[in-house]
UniProtKB/TrEMBL annotation:
Similarity section: Belongs to the transferase hexapeptide repeat family.
SUPFAM superfamilies given in the database record: Nucleotide-diphospho-sugar transferases
CDD domains: NTP_transferase
UniProt xrefs under Pfam families: GMPPB_C (PF25087), NTP_transferase (PF00483)
Record organism: Streptomyces albidochromogenes
UniProt-recorded name of the protein: Sugar phosphate nucleotidyltransferase
InterPro entries tied to this protein: GMPPB_C, Mannose-1P_guanyltransferase, NTP_transferase_dom, Nucleotide-diphossugar_trans
UniProt domain Mannose-1-phosphate guanyltransferase C-terminal: residue ranges: 252-333
Residue intervals of the Nucleotidyl transferase domain: 4-236
Amino acid sequence: MTEAILLVGGKGTRLRPLTVHTPKPMVPAAGVPFLTHQLARARAAGVEHIVLATSYLAEVFEPYFGDGSALGLHLEYVTEEEPLGTGGAIRNVASRLHSSADDPVLIFNGDILTGLDIGALVSTHTTSGADVSLHLTRVEDPRAFGLVPTDPTGRVTAFLEKPQTPEEIVTDQINAGAYVFRRSVIDTIPAGRPVSVERETFPDLLSSGAHLQGMVDSTYWLDLGTPQAFVRGSADLVLGRAPSPAVPGRCGDRLVLPTASVATDAKLTGGTVVGEGATVGEGARVDGSAILAGAVIEAGAVITDSLIGAGARIGARTLVSGAVVGDGATVGADNELREGVRVWCGATLPDASLRFSSDQ
């Protein structure tokens, strides 16, 4: 296995305001853009050539990662003029692949944090002789996901979109967003139009008699599609619960990047990360949160399970819990922001002006 496609074109609408100025895969998690963790894990599994399928804010990726040599990779970038969906994006980059018709090509969704054993997925694909192999994971409540039942040998038998009744929940296995395609199968995806692999490509392949193989791996899996999930994923990377060779420091209760400043009596816990140039003031308490580059947490503030955007400022004694503060926003002293609150990029909240806990 030497080649992969990384799907990084989504707008990240559910993550706003984090994604107003930054594409979702470039939002920092555990101190580096989330995409860095995916690239590093792919490289550790033996992948050498990765094509990034970009769309939204596509111009951001290449200046940061370049040709990939710093990570031991050869990176290429293909930008969609119009969003093409997961299947369309895969087909759109096919000309950049070097693999032969029967070679395996690894494909990742750009918003999944996982401990998947990549080598085991490739091995399953090769030994089963599948046309496409899918990473499956088990979840307690599968109603928000597409179900993927399999027979006793692991062969996929159906694709069932988001069940609504107990009778429809025939399995707890869901599509976990990582695949191995036989190279020739990619060329069967229609070109030049939006295509969903989940709703069109996979069901069509199944109905045509193709062999789709599932491999269940439930070591660690998290869809980072919401701010709450993204914050949790960053904390899990810092804590070492989610594996990544790209965490810029030792795993533990806290990760403070080199140019950050943290007061000696400030308390950082729960996988908190403090980004480059950020400041945490005297007596502040930060638990399970991500403080991005250049942000300022003033004295006595309490930040829990939240993300504070780049260059944002949280005033003295302000409480932020389960909330997101966008890049460059200012929240004055003595405010209280609780679960679901989102403060937009560049917004200013005066001192003691806000005490509520509804989704904004």
